[in-house]
Design goal:
about 150 residues; about 20% strand
Length: about 150
């Protein structure tokens, strides 16, 4: 698994997630996951994360970003920073409490937002593609042969 890319975030719209366990129990809780890149989707998912974060003043927000099968240079990093900045601008989240992590690659780009209580371990990334499976660029057709 190639994890050489630095912090990355990509939004992806999925069904709203119900926390499996309260963050106060010491377990990280995934509060949002999205693939849509429009501002309203990112804002809605960020609002869900900030409302969950409001319950724990010492918790951190983890932005776990995955690149898609069709590699676009710096796409995940750009989307990660977009989500991070939206978190900071829209909610009471200090920039020192937001962590960006490159999760590797999935079939489609995706961003997950997690609430990580103080002292808890960060969730493990779950990529579904190896770096060798990512399509890097488009192949051009060869020029037609002259007759």
């Amino acid at each position: 698994m190639n994890r050489s890319r630095s912090a990355i975030l990509v939004p992806a719209l999925l069904a709203p997630l119900a926390p499996a366990a309260p963050a106060s129990a010491g377990n990280p809780v995934r509060v949002a996951a999205f693939t849509a890149l429009d501002d309203s989707t990112v804002a809605a998912q960020v609002d869900a994360a900030t409302s969950a974060l409001g319950q724990d003043a010492n918790a951190r927000v983890l932005v776990l970003a995955y690149g898609g099968r069709h590699f676009v240079p710096n796409e995940a990093r750009r989307l990660g920073f977009l989500a991070r900045q939206t978190l900071i601008d829209r909610g009471p989240v200090d920039s020192t409490r937001v962590i960006l992590i490159d999760g590797g690659y999935r079939v489609t780009h995706e961003v997950e937002l997690w609430i990580v209580p103080e002292g808890a371990d960060l969730p493990t990334a779950t990529p579904t593609l190896e770096a060798a499976q990512v399509l890097k660029g488009w192949k051009r057709r060869p020029p037609p042969k002259k007759k």
